[in-house]
């Protein structure tokens, strides 16, 4: 078995796990009263965007795991790139435009289409 097949198998299994998570979260949301305000095509495209984002993050995590010297090193390196992305994005609250340097840095970001979509 080639080394690349192990890597691709792991990435595809992560993508399938992400799909399962999306289906479970959407089902729970529908059960508690969430309703989509878009057509079926746009909903499927939104789910596809989430899967593509998860697949991209899986590649970054796989690369970090390959270059790290140990399990602890991979865990530490994995957290370093996630923290700035999450806390500067609009995932936790509205962007404070015009509030000094922080408002400028927290402007339109890569997470906005996924979080606000």
UniProtKB/TrEMBL annotation:
It holds the Pfam family ABC2_membrane. Coiled coil: none annotated. GO terms for molecular function: ABC-type transporter activity. Keywords: Membrane, Transmembrane, Transmembrane helix. The keyword Membrane applies. Its main location: membrane. Residues 2-92 form the ABC-2 type transporter transmembrane domain. The chain crosses the membrane at residues 16-36, 43-66, 78-97. It is a multi-pass membrane protein. GO terms for cellular component: membrane. Signal peptide: none annotated. It is found in: Membrane. This is ABC-type Na+ efflux pump permease subunit.
